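Lab meeting, item 3. Inverse folding demo.
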């Protein structure tokens, strides 16, 4: 059985707290100088505190969402994303949490989550063919705040994701001026990307792809679509390579090729809700292009 986001969070929290809670209970017993089970010694005593620590950890992990609005919102948002994709309800959930963080003055304190929700929401608007709403959403974060308030471990990926959404908006609008402006800001970060870091490569390559699509250089865009096929061991990269190729051939009016790559993408999908939405978006785009011939 596959665990959802909330269940994985509870399990992870339980595992991480387990040793600490076991030690805490053993120390508390010694501090109180009250041995509740004096007849249990040796390994049995160790097992007792281990079990008690596990039970306490599980209870605490289960109760955290009850008392933490941020954790509760994160569970709802990520569960919706994993189970149904970037739906209208997903947009509403992210909007609620974004507004809560702003009104409570905690947006900068939890900027990693705030900026993630904004980027995901903007991307969801693009799936709905609503670039203007995506612009309004992504404009709630900026590069300087990402550099200042995002933790160092995730800062690079968050910044790349920010540029990725901006460039995707430029592509949707076919706005070369916007694409050039985004590229000027993004270039220093893109140049630092090491292709061995697959996560960063996937995002950076998509930024380049969207840039060339927005500026009408479809040959260069196709080169970047093909780069994903250098990582065919990763099924998601194959999916991206085919998906990006579909976009290129729609723009160039080569609908037979677009159909071929779309079918390849359908074969490469892992059937996540998000990938199904991307495929539906591409199918709709191809049908529109054919109807407009």
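The presenter then showed the designed sequence:
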């Amino acid at each position: 059985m596959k665990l959802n986001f909330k269940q994985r969070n509870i399990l992870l929290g339980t595992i991480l707290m387990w040793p600490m809670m076991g030690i805490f209970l053993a120390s508390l017993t010694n501090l109180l100088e009250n041995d509740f089970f004096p007849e249990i010694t040796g390994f049995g005593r160790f097992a007792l505190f281990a079990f008690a620590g596990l039970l306490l950890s599980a209870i605490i992990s289960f109760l955290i969402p009850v008392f933490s609005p941020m954790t509760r919102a994160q569970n709802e948002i990520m569960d919706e994303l994993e189970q149904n994709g970037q739906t209208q309800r997903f947009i509403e959930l992210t909007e609620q949490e974004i507004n809560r963080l702003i009104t409570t003055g905690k947006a900068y304190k939890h900027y990693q989550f705030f900026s993630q929700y904004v980027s995901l929401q903007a991307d969801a608007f693009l799936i709905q063919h609503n670039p203007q709403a995506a612009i309004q959403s992504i404009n709630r974060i900026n590069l300087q705040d990402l550099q200042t308030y995002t933790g160092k471990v995730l800062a690079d990926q968050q910044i790349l994701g920010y540029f990725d959404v901006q460039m995707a908006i430029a592509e949707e609008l076919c706005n070369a001026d916007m694409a050039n402006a985004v590229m000027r800001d993004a270039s220093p970060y893109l140049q630092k990307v090491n292709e061995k870091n697959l996560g960063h490569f996937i995002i950076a390559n998509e930024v380049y792809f969207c840039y060339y699509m927005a500026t009408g250089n479809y040959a260069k865009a196709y080169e970047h679509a093909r780069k994903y096929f250098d990582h065919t061991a990763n099924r998601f990269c194959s999916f991206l390579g085919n998906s990006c190729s579909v976009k290129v051939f729609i723009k160039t009016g080569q609908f037979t090729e677009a159909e071929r790559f779309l079918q390849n993408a359908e074969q490469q999908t892992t059937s996540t809700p998000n990938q199904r939405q991307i495929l539906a978006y591409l199918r709709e785009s191809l049908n529109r292009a054919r109807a407009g011939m």
